[in-house]
Amino acid sequence: MLRFIFTRVSLIIPTFIGITLLAFFLIRLVPGDPIETLAGERGIDPARHEQLRKEYGFDQPILVQYGIYLSRVLQGDLGKSMITQEPVLNEFSSLFPATIELALCAILFALIIGLPAGIIAAIRRNSIFDHGVMGVSLAGYSMPIFWWGLILILLFSVQFDLTPVSGRIDVLYYIEPITGFLLIDTLLSDEVDAFWSAVQHLILPTIVLGTVPLAVIARMTRSAMLEVLGEDYIRTAKAKGLSRFRIVALHALRNALIPVVTVIGLQIGVLFTGAILTETIFSWPGVGKWLIDAIFRRDYPVLQGGALLLGVVVMSVNLLVDLAYGLINPRIRHTR
Amino acid sequence: MALVEIENLSVEFPTQGGIMRAVDGVSLKLEEGEVLGVVGESGSGKSVTMLALMGLIPFPGRVRADKLTFNGRDLLTISEKERRKLTGKDVAMIFQEPTTSLNPSFTVGFQLTETLRLHEGMDRKAAERRAIELLSQVGIPSPESRLSAYPHQLSGGMNQRVMIAMAIACNPKLLIADEPTTALDVTIQAQILDLLMNLQKERKMGLVMITHNMGVVADTAQRVMVMYAGQIMEERSAADLFASPQHPYTAALLAALPERSEGGRLATIPGVVPGLYDRPKGCLFSPRCAYATEHSRNVRPELRPWASGHIRCHYPLGDPNRNAAIHHDHPLKTEAAS
Q1: Looking at residues A123-144, what average pLDDT do you find?
Q2: CA distances for A278 relative to A65, A95, A143, A208, A236, angstroms
Q3: Is the pLDDT of residue B186 over 60?
């Protein structure tokens, strides 16, 4: 197990370098000069332009620029936003809780509905329920997030006026950030109305962001369950006279969860990609929207830093998932 | 009262090509403490018959019988819940592949105590003590430390011992062993068979030994049932069956045993067990039978009392009028044996 952890952790280094490469070079492939964007429509004096280019180091050869960037990153310096002059790390850490709150709600939503749906579909294979779940999840998986979000807003916010259109909480409330998670902060500061406002604001983004993971988890759970239910040890469990519930919920599920956990780990990455779109649609003040804005402003430091930090988060979550794997799969735990 | 009484049992599986009849009109009686060997090739319905008795036929399989009782209880009308109280307690089963028959995610101790806690209502401590006893009874060394082992940490033979310990945990009246030694290597096979036979004698439990190995049956069973394509072909005491097989199929199976061959090439039975599409109209064995006639290909023989048991054949080998009957019914092939 120790060796497993060691190999798994050491894989992080090349991945990290890979992310810095992508984050650095991809944005530079996008046409548009950051300083001209910064200056806006009125344009900029050529001498001042040249001076700013020097200041940001854009006059250096690109590989040298990358070298400087990488050595700063290794020292923990992600640079400052070209627009706000705030350190990237500060901006990220003030916005990140909003994204995490949304992402957690989305994955919980996906799990709470996806797991039972997949299990029941597997037990009632070929029933109307099974076909229904599989059809709906295929549709959910194929749904473009931005379109799905707009349809939901049109229906629930505009037509039925059930949920707010955008934002994280009603403008009436100001909640002093304690944890950064509004659901918790509102309760900590005893603002029950603000809590419900935050819940209402969360509903649609959660559904939109959770739809793809929900579809994937439901389908994966169903197929893993179907495979496990055909195993010899399930026949043994039946031969022991165990109840149907115990067989499914304990003997089968424990084994079926192994591939499902892997898929959940992979979905975390998808979740953050989805968060960028979802946050933009719902004006959710998280890192996704922040990154999109940075692209439009050609704010190189924010983009590089944000992409890198998100990459680190996804890597860490995947690492945790891989380690959690050992907990549910004794065959991994006991190999050296 | 017999421990098990089965009359005219059939098990059918609907498939896309039609209804597949895996067990066809099987009747059998098993007394308490009796050892019955069930033999036949793969696909002969021997396992499915016993799974039907256990109530383990998977959906959409259909079980039908005129009578199906265990220890005087009618299994056809019993509720699902009542039935679960019997399975695993009074009637237990062990399977062919011990390693895949144990759940890889749970320890041996958990899987063993689970049965005890369910059927005997023991608490965790008592169940663990009993589990250690059981493990040492089935010959597992240092049983205390094995409780926390996972199946993948034990060998196939050890896992089969664990399966046996699980099966006998609640002192069953009947143990069904479905090819318990097929997946094990030869030295372990003998140990497991010895273990099963010793446990059977000690506890006087009924034992059904499903196998395709005639040698195993000869060593263990008091009575033998030979199955073919879902039907009983012959059924009699083991001693009689091995001394003078009455059904041509039994004779052919015995002739294929290496122990019985007298040098030269080993005898085989050409062809395969009929499937869904090529089920013969007459005797199911007729396409492969050396003595098949026009009559046996068209008229299916009934299971009838014969000698010390039952047989399903128009021309039993011990019948003195056999040659005349075959001659009368127009043989398709010349008789090879005489």
Answers
A1: 91
A2: 33, 15, 13, 7, 47
A3: yes
C-alpha–C-alpha distance, residues B196 and B205, integer Å: 10
Q: What pLDDT does residue A301 have?
A: 87
β-pairing verdict for B309-311 and B304-306? antiparallel
Q: What is the ipTM of this complex?
A: 0.88
Q: Convert the pLDDT of each residue in B75-87 to its tens digit.
A: 999 998 999 999 9
Q: Is the pLDDT at B135 greater than 50, yes or no? A: yes
Helix H or strand E encompassing A121: helix A88-123
- To test the contact with chain B by mutation, choose from A227, A229, A233 the residue with the greatest count of B C-beta atoms within 10 A, namely A233
Nearest to B56 among A231, A238, A330 (CB): A238
* Distance, CA of B66 to CA of B70 (rounded, Å): 14
Q: What is the pLDDT of residue B336?
A: 47
pLDDT of the residue at B261:
75
Minimal C-alpha gap between B74 and chain A (Å)? 17
Query: What whole-number distance in Å separates Cα of residue A139 and Cα of residue A126?
Result: 18
Residue in chain A closest to B97 (alpha carbons) equals A232
* Residue B338: predicted pLDDT: 39
At residue B255, what is the residue type? A
Write the pLDDT tens digit of every residue in B259-295.
Answer: 777 777 888 888 888 887 888 888 999 999 888 888 8
Question: Quick check: B306 pLDDT over 80?
Answer: yes
Q: List the 232-271 stretch of A: residues with Cβ below 8 A of B.
A: 232-233, 235-243, 251, 254-255
Contact between residue A119 and residue A248 where contact means Cβ atoms under 8 Å apart: yes
Domains of chain A: 96-289+310-333 (1.10.3720.10)
Question: A242 and B103: CB-CB below 8 Å?
Answer: no
The tokens for B322 are: 């056999």
Q: How many whole angstroms separate alpha carbon B236 and alpha carbon B36?
A: 10
Burial level of B72, CB count in 10 A (0-12/13-18/19+)? exposed
Task: Test A331 with B166 for CB contact under 8 angstroms.
Answer: no
pLDDT of residue A334: 64
Predicted pLDDT at B91: 94
Rounded Cα distance, B65 and B53, in Å: 11
| Neighbouring-strand partners of residue B175 | B92, B207
Burial class (CB in 10 A: 0-12, 13-18, 19+), B332: middle
Could you give the CA distance from residue A304 to residue A81 in angstroms, rounded to a whole number? 10
Bridge partner list, B164: none
- Is B87's CB within 8 Å of A240's CB? yes
Whether chain B has a CB inside 8 Å of the CB on A330: the answer is: yes
CB contact under 8 A, B101 and A236: yes
Provide the pLDDT for residue A173. Answer: 75
Contacts of A247 in chain B (CB under 8 A): none
- Nearest CB among A231, A232, A239 relative to B87 is that of A239
Across A76-85, A191-200, B67-76, which has the greatest mean pLDDT? B67-76
Residue in A with minimal Cα distance to B119: A241
Q: Is A170 on the interface with B (CB under 8 A)?
A: no
Identify the CA nearest to B303 among candidates B226, B223, B253, B233.
Answer: B233
